[in-house]
Design a protein that fits this description.
single chain; alpha/beta; Rossmann fold; seven-stranded parallel β-sheet; six-stranded parallel β-sheet; 17 strands; 13% strand; globular
């Protein structure tokens, strides 16, 4: 396995961004009538805290590379636009038949579970069902490529819009024009992108930030995504648009398109949104014109997340957080057969009962299994079984690579395949312990009375209060990890004063009422 990138501490990254913003003239980031600072902050946050400066960033590619990308992307974009027009035409015809309250944007097959009723989108479907239970008409669309067989097997049907190739096509066309300076001056399409680029490079250098941390090309993709989502919203005409994790280019564009049309936009919490998260903290200190990409409401799991977002929001009609709870946890806890009866799951659960200790290891998207976990697993006895779960969204390492690493330590009682594809909550129900780097699945484990042990240093700042109150533990080495795995369960604290994740019905019903009765900020 290759060595993963060294991570920077989140508080340090956030302070870098905040210091930079104190020195920024936000008016200099106006791109054809839209202030794009939110896109810049997004790049800074994700690239700096991973210390993996991906993308083309501020450096220029060769003209030949740009031409190659241009030809490839244009061909894909033309075909994609043809499919897009056909789908929009069908959507318009369909929408004339019935009004729509909520339009959900799904991203399957990301974080999905196979059930007897079809493939279930864990991030969207529980909330869609909540709105349906309250009598609202909902539909779901997706904007990522997925196998045709996958789309046919979904529990809740959806319409697929493959707009990514069109976005890339537009971005590359614009970037090629940027290289052709003579043509650029004649057409004048990207002239002010270069002004933004030069100004930003100077400010980043002044604050000792690598200029590869920002990809100015994103503004070109954003432009087209906004137009494409505008056509989708015009076809569906929903009262509310719902996404999960707004901080990606297409969703930020969709939110801006919605706000321009008076459609209420909500972002549904997908994981920990703590005080050091650059896309959920200190947003209210930014000028109003930079917040157009933000939703009207952040639907959060609990009070702590709401306080973290709202404490910095000073605008009267600005975005704000509301506690709606985690519908997925609530539904599973109230009905353990939530995903239906699965022979595969039943058989797997039955096999686990042979072991006294079942340890679930949830991996981060770019993290390998740390040495301290492997060493601990190697020395455990035959009564212990290890479940190594790959990240549900994207994993740096394949299942085959993980198995190879585990086998090298001569660990015999383990599973990667089932641990990665079966529902997380079903695994937690069958587990005695949970180990992770810094995943928010620790909060979900807490609800199932499963103790969590961290190995990643950043967890010490992210979960400081919970570590102090013995909700969680931290291990520096395999000996400390072994100690936490063998200590008495009575020493763990499973009782929160205020739950990080709310699972009460009052929360979600109240949040639905607020969202559906709220006039969009663009109209107020």
């Amino acid at each position: 396995m290759t060595t993963p990138p060294t991570r920077l501490e989140l508080p340090k990254v956030l302070m870098q961004i905040l210091d930079l913003e104190e020195d920024i003239d936000f008016d200099r980031f106006n791109f054809h009538g839209t202030n794009i600072w939110a896109l810049v902050r997004r790049d800074l946050w994700f690239n700096l805290h991973s210390s993996k400066l991906s993308g083309s960033a501020l450096r220029k590619r060769s003209i030949w590379s740009a031409i190659y990308r241009f030809i490839r992307s244009v061909l894909k974009g033309i075909y994609g636009y043809h499919k897009f027009r056909l789908t929009i035409k069908n959507a318009v015809l369909h929408r004339k038949k019935q009004a729509l309250d909520i339009l959900f944007i799904s991203t399957p097959p990301i974080d999905s579970t196979m059930t007897p009723d079809g493939i279930y989108d864990n991030r969207i479907d529980p909330y869609l069902e909540d709105f349906q239970d309250e009598g609202y008409k909902c539909e779901k669309i997706q904007v990522r490529r997925a196998p045709i067989s996958f789309c046919r097997d979904l529990k809740h049907t959806l319409t697929s819009y493959d707009i990514r190739d069109m976005g890339r096509c537009y971005s590359v066309i614009q970037y090629l024009l940027f290289h052709l300076n003579g043509l650029m001056r004649i057409i004048g399409i990207t002239s002010n992108a270069e002004e933004i680029r030069r100004y930003l490079r100077l400010k980043l250098a002044k604050h000792h930030i690598n200029d590869n941390a920002v990809d100015i090309e994103n503004i070109f993709s954003f432009q087209l995504y906004e137009k494409l989502y505008g056509k989708i919203l015009d076809a569906y005409q929903p009262k509310v648009l719902a996404v999960t994790f707004y901080a990606n280019i297409p969703f930020m564009a969709a939110i801006q398109a919605a706000r321009k049309r008076g459609i209420v936009a909500i972002d549904i919490q997908h994981g920990k949104q703590g005080k050091f998260h650059g896309m959920y903290s200190y947003l209210g200190k930014l000028p109003p014109e930079t917040l157009l990409f933000l939703p009207d409401f952040f639907w959060v799991w609990g009070e702590e997340s709401a306080v973290n977002i709202n404490r910095h929001m000073t605008l009267k009609n600005g975005p704000r957080a509301i506690v709606g709870g985690n519908s997925r946890v609530r539904r599973y806890k109230s009905s353990p057969d939530y995903y239906g009866s699965s022979g595969e799951l039943d058989k797997f659960s039955k096999n686990l009962k042979r072991y006294e200790k079942i340890i679930l290891v949830t991996l981060q998207h770019d993290a390998e299994i740390p040495k301290l976990v492997l060493e601990c697993a190697k020395q455990n006895n035959a009564d212990t079984f290890w479940l190594f779960r790959r990240h549900p969204i994207v994993s740096r390492y394949t299942e085959k690579e993980l198995v190879k690493t585990i086998s090298a330590y001569q660990i015999s009682s383990y599973d990667v395949e089932n641990a990665s594809k079966l529902p997380l909550y079903a695994l937690l129900t069958n587990s005695t312990h949970h180990i992770t780097g810094w995943s928010s699945s620790c909060y979900e484990a807490l609800i199932f009375n499963v103790p969590t042990i961290f190995w990643e240093p950043r967890a010490k700042s992210l979960y400081a209060d919970y570590l102090d109150n013995k909700h969680f533990a931290y291990a520096n080495n395999s000996s400390e990890l072994q100690y936490h795995l063998t200590k008495n369960m009575a020493s763990w604290n499973f009782s929160e004063n205020t739950p990080y994740i709310s699972t009460c019905e009052i929360s979600y019903k109240s949040a639905i009422d607020i969202v559906t009765k709220y006039p969009s900020s663009s109209n107020s």
